[in-house]
Amino acid sequence: MHNEISIALIPDENIFSVIPLLRVLNPAIPEGVLRSRLTEMVSQGYLCAGAYSEDRLIGICGMWILTKYYVGRHLEPDNMVILEAYRSRGLGHRLMAWVQDYALSQGCVASELNCYLSNGRGQAFWEKEGYRKIAVHYQKLLDP
User: Fold this and answer.
1) Which of 98, 109, 2, 88 is nearest to 47 (CA)?
2) In a domain, 11, yes or no
3) Which of 42, 106, 131, 137 could bridge to 126 as Cys pair (CB 3.0-4.6 Å)?
């Protein structure tokens, strides 16, 4: 499997190619909303790595490069998903190794991410990748 899989940064002009994979994460978000949000996200520095089997996009990991006072310049993986047929084959680890190398090439000193409390499989993956829980993420929706 490893010889046939390639990983590369998805060019901004091809960012909508990630929509089918984002729909795996949350099919309730309409495609038009995803297109609008992706356009805004790219304008704010969002990047996305893609894992390809030949020409087919089979996995993605969105990325933000941020600087925060307590950690410095770091990369935040976001919206990582691998198509079901390609899971449990080491591709997630391989994709994260690529993302880590990219972070280092961009001068990042750390990586931080969010994972839903209900995503036990995701939490196990991140812990296996060397991440540790250091905080609780809160959210409040604003009612205009």
Assistant:
1) 98
2) yes
3) 131
SS3 18: helix
Provide the residue range defining the domain that includes 18: 2-128
Q: Does pLDDT of 3 surpass 80? A: no
Residue of 24, 8, 7 lying closest to 82 (CA atoms):
24
* Residue 1, pLDDT above cutoff 80: no
Number of domains in the chain: 1
Instruction: Take residue 13 and report the two structure tokens written for it.
Output: 């002009």
CA angle 136, 69, 61 (to 5 degrees): 60
Classify 94 as helix, strand or coil. Answer: helix
Short-list 116, 95, 110, 105, CA closest to 52: 95
Q: Which two tokens stand for residue 96?
A: 């994260």
pLDDT in tens, 114-137: 998 898 999 999 999 999 999 988
Q: pTM score, two decimals?
A: 0.91
**Residue 20: which CATH number?**
3.40.630.30
User: What's the whole-number mean pLDDT along residues 88-109?
Assistant: 96
Looking at this protein, which amino acid is placed at residue 64? W
